[in-house]
User: Fold this.
Amino acid sequence: MDFDVKSANTSSSESQRSKDMVAPDPMCVMIFSTAPDILLAKRIAHILVEEHLAACVQLTSPMLSVYEWQGEIQGDEEIGVVIKTSRAIARQTIDRLVQLHPYEIPQATVVPLVGGYFPYLSWVSEQTPPQSDGLSR
Assistant:
């Protein structure tokens, strides 16, 4: 599937930038999660990046999550965690996230990237190479 951004009024440099946006199969994903507080979110982010399980982890401002847990409606403030990684190590990244997380069932949802700025997606892939031994570098 191609992702192409086109505009009726593009200059030559904009046209080249548009071509760079085409990424037929970048092999990158985003993993969405949450953490109960900023300190834990930062710890998870640092470990995932240090272990090359994530190229980048973005942490959101506190947000309210409303959900049902054990028959009761809950509302808790959480930090959003957005992890950029390669598809090849998404399972390892989730496994490590679950190890680091205090929740019994932490959110870990994977969204494939269908396109984007190719140099960025290439960088994500380079930062998160397959880890055949299951261990971080």
User: Anything to note?
Assistant: DSSP finds four helices and four strands in the chain. Strands lie at 28-35, 56-69, 72-86, 109-112. The CA atoms of residues 115 and 132 lie 26 Å apart. Confidence is low (pLDDT under 50) at residues 1-11.
